[in-house]
Specification:
- By secondary structure, the chain is of the alpha/beta class.
- It has a single domain (2-192), classed as Rossmann fold (3-Layer(aba) Sandwich), CATH 3.40.50.1820.
- It is 38% helix and 17% strand.
- α3 links the parallel β3 (77-83) and β4.
- α1 (17-28) runs parallel beside α5 (166-186) and α2 (49-66) packs across α3.
- The longest helix has 21 residues, at 166-186.
- 37% of the residues are buried.
């Protein structure tokens, strides 16, 4: 049995493109899909470290409640797919509960790397060079180097990995999902494909 868990961002729900299509790909490869739907965040979080910390702590508490009845031990393959603050929540949850899983991080925040120790096996990360939620893109690059995991860059991509050019955004989304699909397939035994 295989399980994929979606961890959304603040305002970036599981129905938005990155999580929606990554979840569909996981379903196509036989994963059971669990959506962690949290919310009730205060306004004006971006740039406010106290509100960001409160939002992360609230999301983690809600995640623990949502996933409390999941028996992770019954799955031979677990995939955490996360976006923005969800990357922090997924990394912390994985560490706190000793979950052995592979991870897809869309637009990780700098705080995500506080919960990922090197060497970290089984993760890929996606970042836009114009992400306003990240003060310094080099922190994301250095974090990926430290944990030895690949970072896929969307040039001029914002926090949704979009550039504002619709045709380019669709082409970029296709490339991102091709990388996601290759990563999902890489962890599945040949006879299960």
């Amino acid at each position: 049995m295989k399980l994929a868990v979606l961890f959304p961002g603040i305002g970036y729900t599981c129905d938005k493109p990155l999580l929606y299509y990554a979840g569909k790909l996981a379903l196509n490869y036989g994963y059971e899909l669990k959506r962690v739907e949290y919310g009730n965040f205060p306004a004006g979080i971006k740039g406010d470290q106290e509100k960001m910390k409160a939002a992360y702590e609230s999301a983690l508490t809600q995640t623990e409640e949502i996933l409390k009845d999941v028996d992770f031990g019954q799955y031979e393959d677990i995939l955490f797919i996360s976006k923005s603050v969800g990357t922090v929540v997924a990394a912390c949850y994985r560490q706190k509960y000793h979950i052995v899983c592979r991870s897809i991080f869309f637009t990780p925040l700098e705080e995500t790397f506080m919960f990922i120790e090197a060497p970290f096996a089984g993760g890929i990360l996606f970042h836009g060079t114009k992400d306003p939620w990240v003060r310094d893109s080099s922190v994301i690059r250095k974090g990926c180097e430290r944990i030895g995991q690949p970072l896929y860059i969307t040039e001029n991509g914002n926090h949704s990995l979009e550039t504002g050019n619709v045709a380019l955004d669709i082409a970029n989304l296709q490339k991102i999902m091709e990388q996601v699909e290759a990563y999902i397939k890489s962890g599945i035994a040949e006879e299960d494909l």
